[in-house]
Amino acid sequence: MMIEARNVEKRFGSYEALSGLSFSVAEGSVYALIGANGAGKTTTIKMMMNILAPTRGDLTLMGTPSRELTSYHFSQIGYVSESQVLPAQMAVGAYLDYLRPFYPNWDEALERAMLERFKLPVERKIRALSHGMRIKVALVAALAFKPKLLVLDEPFSGLDPLVRDDLVESVLSHAEDLTIFISSHELNEIESFVSDVGFLDQGRLLFENSIEVLNARIRLIRVTLQSTARPPDTFPKAWIDPCMSGNALSFVHTEFAEDRLTSEIAAVFGDVKFVQAEPLDLRSIFTAFARAEQIRGR
User: Fold this and answer.
1) Cβ-contact 136, 88 below 8 angstroms
2) What pLDDT, in 10s, does the model give residues 123-140?
3) What is the 3-state secondary structure (H, E, C) of the chain?
4) What is the pLDDT of residue 227?
5) Does residue 188 register a pLDDT over 90?
């Protein structure tokens, strides 16, 4: 595995920022850690990058504990963050000139190609660049040395759609032999290219799955019953975010199987008049799980 977290906890005094965090990122995958602002995504990345130490638990990158990462490991990890501070007084070209000697695998042809693609002015000082152009500079610096792992912390926040799409296309065009770990709350903007997703809510991982599995097993179910029915005391465990009014029922099914859906509903409510199953996007899936978690915590 490229990244593994096992029962990781992070506390700041009495505040528990992360609890029981476990996930794994396979080599060559595009893994998205998603959740609302404040869920613990950036804290997780800071521990991965050895900026923060886990309070307890195990976190490894490329088979090495995060607290033991060396310059050799960091020469294989690219990092881009929305809040990344670049040297404002330096020109773009001078900044890349400064970085180049630190990375034995720096590819100058790739650097030039990305500068041209992004239309970055090498003589202009970084302080004079827009937010989107500064992110592009950071991305050139993170990809030019051909890392094995690219870590992106909310890279698309505040970017207009054209800039965002250009960044995504550029990253994917250089994704061969590259593992990508991305944190984001902009869920609709990442689901077209990620392979695996972890859902983080208030410092706890609700679940992780591949996009393929999510698309196969999660559906919004709309039901019309033959007659008005009372809600059961407890809904089946795989039905989350239920809403019932009269003879109309809706819920998110987390273990959907078309061939047994009608019989499942009939076992709880009796005769069923109409059933419809609809796929959900990432944002809707996350919202349903987060709401269900809030209800459990009451």
Assistant:
1) no
2) 999 999 988 889 899 999
3) CCEEEEEEEEEECCEEEEEEEEEEECCCCEEEEECCCCCCHHHHHHHHCCCCCCCEEEEEECCEEHHHCCHHHHCCEEEEECCCCCCCCCEHHHHHHHHHHHCCCCCHHHHHHHHHHHCCCCCCEHHHCCHHHHHHHHHHHHHCCCCCEEEEECCCCCCCHHHHHHHHHHHHHCCCCCEEEEEECCHHHCCCCCCEEEEEECCEEEEEEEHHHHHHHCEEEEEEECCCCCCCCCCCCCEEEEEEECCEEEEEECCCCHHHHHHHHHHHHCCEEEEEEECCCHHHHHHHHHHHHHHHCC
4) 83
5) no
- SS3 call for 225: strand
**What token pair was written down for 14?**
């009495």
Share of the chain above pLDDT 90, in %: 55
